[in-house]
Amino acid sequence: MVNHTSNTRILHLLPWTLYFALLAVTYSTHLTWFTSVVKAFETVLIHGFLFYFNDKLLIPKIALKKSYTLYIFTACISILLIAFIQYLLEFEMNLSEGIARVNRARVIENGTGILPRSHREIAWLKLATRYLSPITIIFLISTLYSGFIRKKEQDEREQSLINERMQSELKMLKMQINPHFLFNSLNNIYALVLTNHEKAPDMLLKLADILRYVLYECNEKSNSLEKEIDYINDYIELHRLKGREKYNLMFNYNKANKDLQIAPLLLISFIENSFKHSNIENNTESWIKINLYSKGSKIFFMVKNSISSDKKVKDGTHGIGLSNVKKRLELIYGNRFKLLVTQKAESYESELIIETDED
Fold first, then answer.
1. What percent of the chain has pLDDT above 90?
2. Who has greater pLDDT, 200 or 18?
């Protein structure tokens, strides 16, 4: 916050300093250096006052409340008043150097110190051109600057709200995914414990590894593909330990770049879905094929499985996994992913392509 404030002050101070230097040099062509510096400083103060008067008071108090007629009226009055004040101040400053000489000449001629009519006309023309024009430009620049800054702040606030909503939704989706998986795994272990199965301790250890990953390593925005592969292997092994027969399941990831980063817990939902559709735990004819590979910064993930003829009834949690993963993909990757789900009479296939940030 301190650095941001300091940078803002420097960004404001720099153009005003350059403006002061430009005015001083311009005035020095017909005035002494001391008078030029004083006059330039005076001009910068007047213009700066108008700039911030508009930015800090007129726009937020009048324009942003949609009182546009009052804003335009106040702006015109402010410009005229500031121009007239600057004219009077400069008139006094130049009296001894320029106008005084004219008056002295007039006194010698006719004994009066009043400016000739021609000089008064020139003075009003100067007020209109020399003062009104730059002051109007300063006011317009102030309005444009104020509009730009407020639009930028509004965009930043809206983006911040979007990010907060996204993070909240992602956390909520993760909370739905993790208990869902835990519920299924505990059911598997419970079934083995009831029969005093020798695989029950191994399953508990596998579940501990899985939960350790979910609880402690999935809080980051992304994890390495290697960690996701280990997690998937633990999940598959958990099911293998439960089964009495060897599963017809293939998981190929030899051509995957394990250093690529991916959002955690995205891929597992597709594998959970394949176990449900195939009923591979109870049907020896069922099969699952999982293929994971990468090309450059793209991750390709395909899961294909048979559809068991005796798996007709869907449980109440069937749609949670894939529904959540679709929402997470949209939130995290936007338009940098493609998801194709194909269901046929005897097979179900999911194909996911993710463009990561690694280039």
1. 17
2. 18
Cα(26)–Cα(88) distance, integer angstroms: 20
Are residues 266 and 234 in contact, defined by beta-carbon separation less than 8 angstroms? no
Same domain, 203 and 150: no
Output the CA torsion sign for 293, 299, 300, 303: positive
How far apart are the C-alpha atoms of 327 and 337, rounded to whole Å? 12
Q: Which two tokens stand for residue 324?
A: 């959540």
Is position 40 within any domain? Answer: yes
Q: How many separate domains does the chain show?
A: 2
Burial of 43 (C-beta count, 10 Å sphere; 0-12/13-18/19+): buried
The one-letter code for the residue type at 16 is: W
* Residue 123: inside a domain: yes
pLDDT band for 250, please (50, 70, 90 cuts): very high
Neighbour-count burial of 262, counting CB atoms closer than 10 A to its CB (0-12 exposed, 13-18 middle, 19+ buried) = buried
CA distances from 233 to 210, 221, 236, 264 (A): 10, 21, 5, 14
- Return the exposure string of 332-354: e unless at least 16 CB atoms fall within 10 Å of the residue's CB, then b: bbeeebebeeeeeeeebbbbbeb
Q: Which of 352, 256, 265, 271 is nearest to 305 (CA)?
A: 271
Exposure b/e, 280-305, CB count within 10 A at least 16 = b: bbebeebbbbbbbebeeebbbbbbbb
Residue range of the domain that includes 146: 2-157
Poorest-confidence range of 27-31, 140-144, 269-273? 27-31
Question: Which distant-in-sequence residues (6+ apart) come within 8 Å of 181 by Cβ?
Answer: 210, 214, 235, 268, 272
Token pair for 67: 């009182």
Between CA 228 and CA 171 the distance in angstroms is 18
